[in-house]
Automatic annotation (TrEMBL):
Protein name: EMARD protein
Record-linked PANTHER family: ENDOPLASMIC RETICULUM MEMBRANE-ASSOCIATED RNA DEGRADATION PROTEIN
Domain DUF4209 stretches: 131-211
Database matches in Pfam families: DUF4209 (PF13910)
Length: 668
């Protein structure tokens, strides 16, 4: 604990000076009436004149600007503290409507009146998040793709056109620029402790947001434009995020004890942890997660810098150097190409990294930190289910890095289920995991085919050119041969009869194969390239299945109602005949996809040449499935061509299998 108690700040000396001292050096006082008109409008010229510029290139001189704006911020803070809530609402509430979340800004006013330092920091994090989202909406009045980074958004010509460059320069002194106070980043990345963020800067940003609303109203009246707000991100399929059991007050009470003793928690950050757990108890789920995510980052940064012997990286990086953030801490190698030692010190490295990648980084995951910090989520409706997972994960980390004298708490009957869930966690949003899900969903869809309504078999047999189903029988025979060649690479006893197709190409086998644990952490580029192609193949197969189901249902209804013309009747019967062989073909392709997942890592590492050959083969399978989507569509209905395509791809699959170029063979 000595190390943790000795850390008094995570801000480097220049950043600490800029945030905690620079804006307090000038002792000037300003009459609030100099920057506010009688009706409460911001006198922007009186504000912008405090921004200083470097003579040589007229870029913002951030040091002088912070020093000059400091007393102004103090005056604004004192002014807000002099107002009652009713006075503030009457004079300013309407100017926050442009943000689409005025309640957040009214809440910040309350915090400035009565809140502790932790609540002020939380209020500032929420304010900057909502302000960024609102500025992005304004940007879209003039531009198309809104910049992802706040610094790029604030530096854009589009916002300068609406608000004026001088106004945007004021904002950049406080947020968005690594050369300024950069309040958003130092808070969201866990560098600032509660008492290091002056409340007057939070007050000033509240004041500036109201002023921006006034400027925007004038702009919209002049241009006749209408400000549209982008919809919030809504978490769907919450069951996919369910990793930990529901947290009750008993668990949270134990967590409060663990926080005070865990070596994962810096003493200066303890108020953030306590407030986060309290917020969860009070059903303030967004607040809880907003507070916890930066603390998970700073705790992991402490481990990262200690295990990789770079203690200086614990502090805020300078503007010329990157912060040590989640992305780097979760990477396989350091920037000097040495192996990252952080996963080694985590008792369950794959679990911790997989969970963090799933919830924070993977593009198909919830990306909670990005979406919260950029204002993409409605804070009022943030789901308990998501917060439960973040808090649950945090508790398991606290347990792992607690002293031995906390053994009784770590072994408590309500904590052990959390630890068990943590040790069993598997990635849900890595591309490989998503591919597994796709395969099983596609297989479920294909399993619906036998239940499709159909006409009597004898009418299908009467189609000219299909007597005896000779073509279909040839295809079925090839599929059986391929399955026979693949048996060596499948689980034992999966073939229980002479009917290889119906005994092997089953949902049960695919579920068994998909349940095989595959390391998704640090997947090399060749593996991901293969997975991209496999996912495209799976997507096309599912599309074919959906088209067959929809088409068969529609045509059967038309058949019963006798609304099909002669050509349409023949084509419908041709479809019924074709899907008998198309089902095992698609199931075979899904089996091949699943078998590749078991061996793809070792193949790509073992034999790059064969990997390239196989990737080329996979792309030909993809081309087949894409053509299949076209031919089986309601607009085309080209079932003869479908049979020809299928014959060609099965020959190619059998040929590849014969030559032992299958990925699973290369892995053996």
């Amino acid at each position: 604990m000595a190390l943790l108690d000795s850390v008094t700040t995570c801000l480097s000396q220049p950043v600490h000076y800029a945030i905690c001292r620079l804006g307090f050096e000038k002792k000037d006082t300003y009459d609030i009436n100099n920057i506010l008109s009688g009706n409460g409008e911001v006198r922007w010229q009186a504000v912008t004149e405090h921004v200083c510029y470097i003579e040589s290139d007229q870029s913002v001189d951030y040091i002088k600007s912070i020093r000059s704006l400091g007393p102004l911020c103090e005056s604004v803070h004192l002014y807000f503290k002099s107002l009652t809530k009713e006075q503030f609402v009457i004079q300013y509430a309407s100017w926050f409507h442009w943000t689409n979340c005025p309640e957040v800004f009214l809440e910040v006013f309350d915090v400035l009146q009565y809140g502790q330092a932790t609540e002020v920091a939380l209020g500032l994090m929420k304010l900057t998040s909502c302000l960024e989202r609102a500025l992005g909406d304004v940007y879209l009045l003039k531009g198309n793709d809104c910049p992802f980074l706040l610094r790029d958004l604030l530096a854009s010509d589009q916002l300068a056109h609406v608000f004026g460059q001088a106004v945007m320069n004021v904002l950049r002194v406080f947020i968005g620029s690594p050369y300024g106070l950069n309040l958003r980043n130092v808070l969201w990345h866990g560098f600032a402790s509660p008492h290091e963020i002056p409340a007057k800067y939070c007050a000033m940003l509240l004041f500036l947001t109201a002023g921006l609303g006034q400027l925007l109203q004038t702009y919209l009246l002049q241009t006749k434009c209408v400000l549209a707000h982008r919809p919030y991100v809504i978490f769907i399929s919450l069951e996919e995020l369910d990793a930990f059991p529901d947290l009750n007050n008993e668990i949270l009470s134990i967590a409060e004890e663990l926080v005070k003793q865990s070596s994962f928690v810096l003493k200066i950050m303890l108020p953030f942890w306590i407030t986060a757990l309290t917020a969860f108890k009070q059903s303030k789920y967004a607040d809880s997660v907003i507070l916890l995510l930066p603390q998970l980052e700073v705790g992991l940064r402490l481990l990262f810098t200690t295990t990789n012997k770079c203690p200086n990286r614990l502090l805020t990086a300078e503007s010329s150097t990157l912060y040590t953030t989640f992305d780097e801490m979760l990477a396989k190698h350091l920037d000097n190409e040495e192996v990252n030692q952080l996963p080694v010190v985590l008792e369950e490295p794959a679990m911790a990294s997989d969970f963090l990648w799933d919830f924070l980084n993977h593009q198909e995951g919830p990306r909670i930190r990005d979406r919260l910090s950029h204002g993409e989520i409605n804070l009022e409706t943030f789901p308990r289910e998501v917060a439960n997972q973040i808090v649950g994960f945090a508790i398991t980390i606290l347990c792992r890095f607690s002293d031995e004298d906390m053994f009784s708490l770590k072994e408590h009957m309500v904590i052990k289920p959390l630890m068990n869930c943590a040790s069993c966690y598997r990635s849900r949003f890595h591309p490989i995991s998503r591919l597994k899900k796709q395969v099983l969903e596609c297989m479920k869809s294909i399993h619906l085919w036998p239940e499709l309504p159909t006409v009597p078999e004898e009418q299908v047999q009467m189609i000219k050119g299909l007597e005896g189903n000779a073509e279909a029988n040839t295809l079925i025979l090839m599929i059986s041969e391929i399955i026979s060649q693949l048996q060596h690479y499948m689980p034992r006893n999966c073939c229980r009869s002479d009917d290889l197709i119906n005994s092997v190409l089953t949902e049960r086998l695919l579920m068994e194969l998909c349940d095989t644990r595959i390391c998704t952490l640090y997947s090399p580029r060749p593996v991901l390239e293969v997975v991209v192609v496999l996912r495209k193949i799976s997507t096309q197969c599912h599309q074919v299945s959906q088209q067959v189901i929809a088409g068969a249902g529609l045509r059967y209804a038309q058949w019963v109602n006798k609304t099909l013309r002669s050509r349409q009747r023949h084509n419908y019967l041709r479809m019924l005949s074709s899907i008998k062989f198309l089902s095992p073909v698609l199931r075979l392709i899904l089996l091949l996809i699943t078998l590749e997942l078991v061996s793809v890592h070792s193949v790509c590492k073992k034999n790059p040449f064969d990997y390239q050959q196989y990737l080329k083969f996979l792309k030909s399978v993809l081309q087949y499935t894409e053509n299949l989507v076209t031919y089986t569509s309601p607009e085309k209905n080209k079932w003869d061509e479908t049979m020809e395509l299928t014959n060609k791809i099965l020959i190619k699959i059998r040929k590849i299998s014969d030559r032992k170029l299958m990925l699973m063979h290369l892995a053996t």
